[in-house]
Amino acid sequence: xxxxxxxxxxxxxxxxxxxxxxxxxxxxxxxxxxxxxxxxxxxxxxxxxxxxxxxxxxxxxxxxxxxxxxxxxxxxxxxxxxxxxxxxxxxxxxxxxxxxxxxxxxxxxxxxxxxxxxxxxxxxxxxxxxxxxxxxxxxxxxxxxxxxxxxxxxxxxxxxxxxxxxxxxxxxxxxxxxxxxxxxxxxxxxxxxxxxxxxxxxxxxxxxxxxxxxxxxxxxxxxxxxxxxxxxxxxxxxxxxxxxxxxxxxxxxxxxxxxxxxxxxxxxxxxxxxxxxxxxxxxxxxxxxxxxxxxxxxxxxxxxxxxxxxxxxxxxxxx
Length: 319
Prior knowledge:
The chain folds into 2 domains: 3-112, Tyrosine recombinase, N-terminal domain (DNA polymerase, domain 1), CATH 1.10.150; 129-309, hpI Integrase, Chain A, CATH 1.10.443.10. By secondary structure, the chain is mostly helical. The protein starts with 11 loop residues before the first helix and ends in a 6-residue tail after the last helix. The protein is elongated, with a radius of gyration of 25 Å. The chain has helices at 12-21, 27-46, 59-71, 83-102, 129-136, 144-159, 163-167, 201-216, 240-254, 262-275, 280-287, 292-295, 299-313; strands spanning 183-188, 194-199. β1 and β2 form a beta hairpin. The longest helix has 20 residues, at 27-46. Helix content is 51%, strand content 4%. A two-stranded antiparallel sheet has the order 1-2. α2 crosses α4 (83-102). It contains 13 helices and 2 strands; from the N terminus they run αααααααββαααααα. GO terms for molecular function: DNA binding. This is Tyrosine recombinase XerC. Residues 122-311 form the Tyr recombinase domain. Residues 6-101 form the Core-binding (CB) domain.
């Protein structure tokens, strides 16, 4: 059958196979694209366009869909979709048009779909070195739970890991030798992308103290970071939710911003490197970002710093 004569909704499954096989996108990304395109299919049906062929799709249709996203597609709490969320739906549709191009199916080009300007510039929440030091000193390191939590906080800031990457670490991956001052570790992160993360001397010291305490208890658990509460029969690997809960407890104790999350510690890692003059492309590698645009959100830190320097020193001696 000529694929150009197949209605747009019937192309979706083939499109998802294409981004899996040809683009190598993760199953989670495929799931997100399916969910984003579902809204487009709902709009087609409401507009009595569910039999629309790819070549029949017009810029006017795209505009009407954008109006639908902006005004007639509320969230679960009856609020309009944010501009950045609308863009996710548009990116998915643009990718579908890219699939049509790749398969020589006549349709409007993907670049005809432009993205909405965000409601406001996205800024990054991060902690200063002074705030981080205050946070690090909060866990009670006379207990094994406190040693674990100190090691977790140090690891977040030293490596810039995502919380899912940190909780998946196993004890056997941490090779600490008597002469070891730091550790390099290969991990596989989001999207199946491999990268190397680096544990500082301070982090290695706290990991050693924590693991020594585990050895003293003859602990043979596989996971690096484990739970010390709950049922004995329950899995002991610490979950992201448990880490978030512990961090919130320490944040409250120290009086730091309540919006601080494990991801804020990842932001703090990247922001610290940037303020030390590390190139954005290098930070992209450290964070495991596929696209430099994902790392670009940290540029505002440098921009603000330059602005402050300019205001402080430019024309200082001018009459």
